[in-house]
Amino acid sequence: MDGVHPLHNSQPAYGWIRKGTDMVLQSNTGRERLNLNGAYNIEDHTAVVIESESINAQSTVVLLEEMMRKQPKGLLYIILDNARYYRSEIY
Fold this sequence. Notes:
The chain is of the alpha+beta class. It is about 15% helix and about 15% strand. The chain has one domain.
């Protein structure tokens, strides 16, 4: 289970450019990004992904509820990182 925040614009990191040559990196305007929180099921190779305004404790609860809906019986083993929204005590 993890959250990702892909950006709308390009972010140059590195590249090979011939010395003395200018390189133009085209980009879009704006600073929009997606906020995706998801989990991968290693048994049946399916994913549950929730897109929300922001990834926070409430959107994480929505993801967990969707995971429980898709697997109503048995145990859910969840591996996640130490992100702030995974450490909330709202429930």
